[in-house]
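Human: Can I borrow your eye for a moment on a structure tokenisation matter? Separate attempts, laid side by side, tell us more than any discussion would. Could you pick a protein and write out its sequence and tokenised fold? No explanation is needed for now; the record alone will do.

Assistant:
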Amino acid sequence: MRFLHTADWQLGMTRHFLAGDAQPRYSAARRDAVAALGELATDVGAEFVVVSGDVFEHNQLAPQVVGQSLEAMRAIGIPVYLLPGNHDPLDASSVYTGALFTSECPDNVVVLDRAGAHEIRPGVQIVAAPWRSKAPTTDLVADVLDGLPADGSTRVLVAHGGVDVLDPDRDKPSLIRLGNVEKALLDNVIHYVALGDKHSLTQVGDTGRVWYPGSPEVTNYDDVEARPGHVLIVDVDESDPQRPVTVEPRRIGRWRFVTLHNQVDTSRCIADLDLNLDLMPDKDRTVVRLALTGSLTVTDRAALDACLDRYSRLFAWLGRWERHTDLAVVPADGEFDDLGIGGFAASAVKELVATARAGVDDSADAQAALALLLRLADRGAA
């Protein structure tokens, strides 16, 4: 038996920093990643797809988002089993029970809206643990495993949420207890555990049977999501009583959220940053967060601003990570002597230089004004 394991589509997700056409393109890429599962399924001969929670970003979605999402699922062409998660639980406002979803849901899409075993075909079951609220008070996996017999059926557990061994707060009542899961695997009650909630590709434990696929398209920066953009191709050997499992990650995501840490103290540092940004591929599908530290002259700061201004027009988004950016701007001696101005203007520049060097509340404004002056004088070109 071969199937695809995916999770955390979060269709309808927006990123607040994406502006212009970047947000619609990002949303389209998330739907395209879903539709692309159909081609992958055909290529590898997958029988069905399981989606381990958070199919949608939340339950209050625009009709267009729901309709376009269902069309993407229809395009997969094989059975797709959706598990409600913490973003889209089966509560009173559930998207899964709304009139639009129920009327337009394709025939190949099945919502796992009942806890327990669902027969896929004779001898093969999905054991589902759907969320009915955003804050369960019990381990939903332990609840569905309780009393489940080892009767020879091939079973895939589909669940959502954190696992106790990966969470610093192990007393959280909703956490999935890995010990219970591994015992069920050892006893041949279940044979593979398809988890969702963690957006980075992650194997849990040492059995090789418990996985998070991560989100198929990136949702956060690389310090949070080390390995996004994957789907898992899972093989279970039904001919063997032990049901051995093989898992192959396949990358399908096309967007990247990148963090760059750079020390910028000289014009050479700025030139190196410029080169690094220039060499990055797929700029229109790349989000860059910059953590910049260093001390610059006003001329170099103007050159840095010009560099960032240029690349902000090329990347899906580029900006500074303010919490990790610490740039000091110190006017160099003689830096403004050859601007060709005199009188009141020269006195104003001298006053701005003094304020910029003083390290007072107005220093940042003075530094920005001086940098702008140099750029206007065509001295801050990158």
Observations:
- The domain at 2-251 is CATH 3.60.21.10 (Purple Acid Phosphatase; chain A, domain 2).
- The mean pLDDT is 91.
- The chain is about 30% helix and 20% strand.
- The first helix runs from residue 22 to 44.
